[in-house]
Amino acid sequence: MSNAIARVPTRFAKHLPSLLSPFILIGVWQLVVELHLFPTNILVPPAEVFQTFLSLLDDGELLENIGASAARVIAGFAAGAGAGLAVGMAMGIYPALERTFGLLLTILRQVPFIAWAPLLIVLFGVGESFKIIVIANAAFFPVALSTLDGVRSVPRHLKDVAALFRFDRLTLIRQLVLPAALPSILTGIRLALSRSWMIVVGAELFAASSGIGHMMDWARQMFQIDVVMVGVIVTGVVGFALDQLLRRVELHFSSWKPVTK
Amino acid sequence: MKTLGKIALSRNAQGILPLIVLLAVWVVAVRGNQPGSLLQNGSAKAVLDTGIDLIRSGVLWENYRASLTRVIIGFALGGSLGTLIGLLLGISTWADRLFGPLLTAIRQIPIFGLVPLLGLWFGMGESAKLALVALAAFFPMALNTHEGVRNVSASYREVAALYRFGLYHRLRYVLIPNAVPSLLTGLKLGLSFAWIAVVGAELFLTAAPGLGNLLEAGREQFRVDMIVLGIVLVGGTGWAMNAAVTALERHLLRWRPNFS
Amino acid sequence: MPASKIVTLQTSHRPWETQQPAAAPRHRHAAELIVRNVNKSFDIDRKPLPVLQDIDLVAKPGEFVTIVGSSGCGKSTLLRLIAGLDREFDGEILFGGRPVAGPSLDRGLVFQDHRLFPWLTIEQNIAAAFSSRPIDPETKKLLVLDHIALVGLKGFENAYPHQVSGGMAQRAAIARALVNEPDILLLDEPLGAVDALTRLYLQEELQRIWLEKGVTMIMVTHDIEEAVFLGDRVIVLQPRPGRISKIVEVGITQPRDREDPRLGKLKKEILSEFNSTAPINYSI
Which residue of C has its CA nearest to B160? Predict the structure, then answer.
C-alpha cells in the first residue's frame, strides 16, 4: 500500500490535501448534524442545503436575486471606479490637484462605507439610487488611490526618456503613464470589485425587495436556515470567482514586471 | 529660513483649502427656515448644538463607549484566534494545505452577508454583534500572521541552523521579528474591519447603545445632525486607531531602511 | 605559525558540542580537517547533476587555505558540506578525527551576503551567536565587544545593519562567526558583494584577523589575486563537475606585500590552469 502511494507523482500528492479540505468540511458538517449537537433551526445537513440550492435554481429565484445584486454592483462599480480612475489619474498627473484635494480625500476615506448609509438613505430614500451610490462610494476610493499610486510611481528615469523624445501630454499618458500604472490600477479595480460585492449584500439588508442580501434576510425572518446557507455559499463562491478572475487579468497585464519576492 | 517656512506652510495650506471652503459653505449656506426640515437639521449650528447637548447629557459618551467596548472585545476574541490559527498554518505545512483553502473560501463571504446567518444562530442581540466583529477581525489577522510566519527567508533559517538555535531562539530571533511587519499590517486591517463590523452590527441587529444606534436613530427621525455627529465619531475613531498602529509600526520597525 | 592570541575566558571543554566524547579535553587548534573522496550530485528534473567529484583536501590547524574557481564549480557546496548545513554526500569529512554530522559551533561559516538579522543591532547580532550555549551575561558582553574591536567596528555597536555599509556588515558577520572561538572558519566568497576598493581593504583586515587569532581558515573565492594573497595553499577547482585540478603552495610568509613578484607568478600559474574558453573572473 505504501509503495503505491510512493509511486503517486509528488505534484499530485502535494495538492491532495487542498482538494480534500472542502470534503472534510462537508464531512464534519454532516457529522455535527448527525450528532445532533445543534438544534435543527441552527444547522441543517449539507444534503438539504444542496436540495434547496437546486430548487431555488430551478424556479429561477436564485438567479433572479443574483442578477439583481449583480446589476447593482455593476452600476455602482462602474460609476465609482470610473470616477476613481479619472480623479486618481488627474491627481497623479497634476500634482497641484493632489496637494489641494489629497487631504480632503484622505479624510473622507476614513469613514467606513457603512456609516454613509444612513445619511444617504435620508437624502435619497431606500430606493435603488441609494444602494448604487453606496457601492460607488466604496468602489471609488481603492481605485482612486491605486491609480494615483500607479501614476505617481512611474519611474523618474522613464519620464526623462519621454522628455527627451518630447512627448506631449496626451502621448505621455497614452504611451507611458497608462501602461506603467496599469498593474496598480488593476489591483485597485480588483479590490474595488471585491468590496462592491461585499457591500451590495449589506446595502440590501437595509431595505431591498430583490437581491441576494434581501433573499437571505427574508429567509432569516422566516427561519429558513437552508436558504440562508445557500445565500452564504453563493455569495462566497461568486466573490471568490470574481477575485480569481481579476487576479488572472492582473497577472496577465503585469507580466512585464520583474518578479519581486 | 522664513521664506522656507512660508513655502512649507503654503504647500500644506493647499490641502486645507478645500476643507475651509466646504466648511464655510456649510456654515453659511446650509440653513433652513422650517424647524425639523433637513436643511435645518443639517446646518452647522444644529450639529454643534446637538453635539453639545448629547455630550452634556452623557448620551454621546454612552453610545460611543458601547461601540468601543464591542470593538475591543470582538477584536480581542477574533484577533487572538486569528493570530493563533495563522501561526499554526504558518508553521505546519500539512495544516496549511488542509485548512488553508477552506479559510480562503470562507473569507470570500462578505462579512455582512453573514448577518442573517449569525442572526439565526445567535439571535439578533449582543452575541451576534460580537460574533460579527470577531469574525471581521479574524481573517486579516489570520492571513497576515500566516504570511509573516511562512515567509521566513531560507537565509536566516540557515544562520539559525549554523548557530544551532533551539526553538525558543528560532522564534525570538528569526520567526517573530520576521513576522512583525505582517502582524502589524494585520493589526491595522483587523482593527479597521472590526470597527466597520461594529457599526454594521449596530445598524443591522437589534437596537442598543452604540454609534450605529446613533446613526440609525438619526435616520429614523431625519435628524441629519445626529447622523453627522455619528459619522464624525466613526471616521475619527477609525483614523485614530490606524494612526496608533502606524506609530507602533514606526517604533517596532525602526530597524528598517527608509525608502521614501 | 604565528602565536595565537587565545581569549583566556574560554575553556577547552565545550558543553554545547554534542559530539564531544567524555575523553580528555582537546587542545585548541589541534583539529585537522580531512575531506576524503567526497562526491555530490544534485537531482535536477530527476536527473543527477554531479557537482563535486573526488574532492580530497586537508587543512592543518592554523592554515589559511583558499579555494579558487569560477561559478558553478561547487565551491560553495563544498563549504556547506564542511559546515554541516548539507549532509547528503558520498565520502568522508572528518574534523578533529570525528565525522562531520551537522553544524557545530566549532566550525564557523561566513556567507557572501552577510545574513545579519536586520532587526538586531550589530552587537545583538554578534551576541546571538551564543544562543545555543550557556554563558553568563558579563562574559558574553566582553567577548562581543572584544570581537567588535577585533574587526574594527568599535562605535557601531548599536547600529542596525541597514545603517552601515556592506563592508562593515560583512565585518560584523565575521565577528559573529569568530565569537564562539571556532577551530575553523569557513568563508564563502565573503568579499564578493563588496566594491573593489573595500575588497582590497577587507583582504588586509582578514589577514590581520587571521594572524591575530590563529584560527584555521578556508576561504572560497573567484578572485585569483585574492586567493594567492591570502592563502598558504591555493586549491584550484574546475567546474562541471567541481574537481581539484591543482594545489599550489604559496610559501611566502604572512603578512604579505601585494606587489611581491612571486604572487604575480603564482597568479599566472593558476590562471593557466583554467581553460581559456571558459570565462573566468579575475581582478586587475
Answer: C129
- Relative to beta strand C216-221, strand C64-68 is parallel
Shortest Cα–Cα distance, C104 to chain B (Å):
7
Q: Please give the Cα distance from B141 to B190 (Å, whole number).
A: 6
- Domains plus CATH for chain B? 41-252 (1.10.3720.10)
Distance from CA of C106 to the nearest CA of B (A): 10
Could you tell me the domains of chain C?
Answer: 33-273 (3.40.50.300)
CB B158 to CB C118 under 8 A?
no
| Mean pLDDT value of segment C61-70 | 90
Q: Helix, strand, coil: what percent of chain A each, to 5?
A: 80, 0, 20
CB contact at 8 A, B117 and A229: yes
All residues of chain C having their beta carbon less than 8 Å from the beta carbon of residue B254 are 160
Question: CB distance A228–B116 less than 8 Å?
Answer: yes
| Option in A21, A121, A201 nearest B101 (CB) | A21
Q: What percent of chain B has pLDDT over 90?
A: 29
The shortest CB-CB distance from B19 to any of A103, A199, A225 is to: A103
Q: Which residues 6+ apart lie within 8 Å of C182 measured at CB?
A: C105, C106, C107, C108, C215
The pTM for the full model equals: 0.76
Domains of chain A: 46-253 (1.10.3720.10)
Task: Give pLDDT tens digits for A130-187.
Answer: 888 889 998 999 899 888 888 887 777 777 777 777 777 777 777 777 888 888 888 8
